[in-house]
Amino acid sequence: MSIPVITQSRTITTSRLTTRVLFSGPGDGVPVIFVHGNLSAATWWEETMLRLPAGYRAIAPDLRSYGESDPAAKVDATRGMGDLSDDIAALMDALSIPAAHMAGHSLGGGVLWQFLADHPSRVLSLTQVCPSSPYGFGGSKADGTPCFADGAGSGASAVNPAFAGLLAAGDRGEDTPFHPRNILNTYVWKPPFVPARFEDILTSALAQHTGPQDYPGDIVPSANWPTVAAGTSGPINAMARNHQADPLAFTKVRAKPPVLWLRGADDTVVSDTSLFDLGFLGSVGAVPGWPGADIYPPQPMIAQTRAALDAYKAAGGTYKEEVFADCGHSPYLEKPSAFDAAFHAILTGN
After folding, report:
1. In angstroms, rounded to a whole number, what is the distance separating the alpha carbons of residues 115 and 271?
2. Domain range for residue 71?
3. Cα-to-chain-centroid distance, residue 232
4. Which sign does the torsion angle of CA 274, 280, 285, 286 carry?
5. At what angle do helices 82-94 and 107-118 cross, to 10 degrees?
C-alpha cells in the first residue's frame, strides 16, 4: 500500500539511495530538511511542512529502511548513524542544496547529531525534537560510559518481539497493548490526543522495513544482562551505545549553527525514565535479573543531551531548550501552534 500524501511526492535517486521525498513551498525557497524518527516516515512532517513561513522550501525524505525507500538498501549499524547521515548529504547533493535548516525527530535527531559532526557547514540551523541522546538509546551511564562493551540490552535486543511481529504483519488491530496502533496512541503522543490523520500516520509506520537487517535488526548472544545484545544491522542497532564512535563529535566542529531543542514535558520515549529503556524497566522490576544501578542504570537521556549541548555552548555554539507542557514525544503534532512559534523563530532569526 502506498502512503497517502498531502504534499508533493517525488522519487529521488542519489549516489547512495532511491527513496520517496516529500516537498512543499517554492522551488527556490530557503531549504528546510525534515528527518523523521523510528516507526515513522516523512509523512509525519507534512502538516509542519505546509505551515512553514512564506519563502521556505520543505524537504522530507523517507530514511533508509523506512517508508518507500529502496528495500534493498540496508543500514550498517556498526557505523552508528553514519549511513543515514551520508544519505542526507547525498540527497542535498542530488538537489543541489549547499546548506539547509535541519529538523529531526527522535531517531532523526540522532541522525542530525551525526550530520552536524560530519557536515557542520551545511547546517544553517538545527532543530531537535525529542532527539535521541548523542550517546544513542539504551545501555549507557550518565557520563556516556557504555554499561557493557557489547551493547547488551540495547538496539534490537531491547525490542519487544510481540510488537515486532505485529509490525512485520502490517497489523492495524488493537486487541493487545503491543499493536502498533496502541503503541502510537499510548506512548508516541500523550493520550487522549490523536492526530487528525492518524490512519495515514499508521500506514506510514507500518511501512517500516522489517526483518533481521531492518527492524528490529539482528540480535547476538551476550554473557551480560539480559543475555542478548545489539547486532550489526538496522537503524535500531545503529542507536546502540557500542556503535557510537564519537558521540560528542558535533560539539567540536568549528562551524556551530544555532540549535533549538524542543521536547514534551511528558515524553515517555526519550526521557530520564524511558519506558523503552531496559535499564529503567529493570529498575522498576519489569525486566527480571536487573544487575543494579551501578552496572546498568536507567539512561538519563535528557540530562545527557543537556550536558552535550552545554559542551557545545562552552565551545562557542548556542542553544535554546523549550519544554511543552501536557505534551508527549511528538510536539509538532500535539502542540502545532507553540511548536511553530519556536521553530519559525529559529528559521527566520527572530
Report:
1. 22
2. 8-147+246-348
3. 18
4. positive
5. 70
pTM for this prediction: 0.98
For residue range 259-282, list pLDDT tens digits in order.
Answer: 999 999 999 999 999 999 999 999
DSSP string covering 177-190: TTSHHHHIIIIIS-
User: What is the per-residue pLDDT across 129-161, written as a single tens digit (0 to 9) for each?
Assistant: 999 999 999 999 999 999 999 999 999 999 999
**What is the torsional sign of CA 148, 154, 155, 160?**
positive
Q: Say if strands 8-13 and 219-221 run parallel, antiparallel, or are unpaired.
A: unpaired
CATH, residue 118: 3.40.50.1820
Task: Please give the grid coordinates belonging to residue 199.
Answer: 490512519
Q: Please give the tally of structural domains in the chain.
A: 1
Q: How far apart are CA 277 and CA 74, in angstroms?
A: 25
Examine residue 65 and state whether it is found in any structural domain, yes or no: yes
Give the Cα separation of 222 and 342 in Å (integer): 44
CA distance 138 to 77: 15
CB 244 within 8 A of CB 135: yes
In a domain, 180, yes or no: no
Tell me the torsion sign for CA atoms 195, 200, 203, 209.
Answer: negative
In a domain, 106, yes or no: yes
**The three three-digit cell numbers of residue 114, written as one number:** 551525526
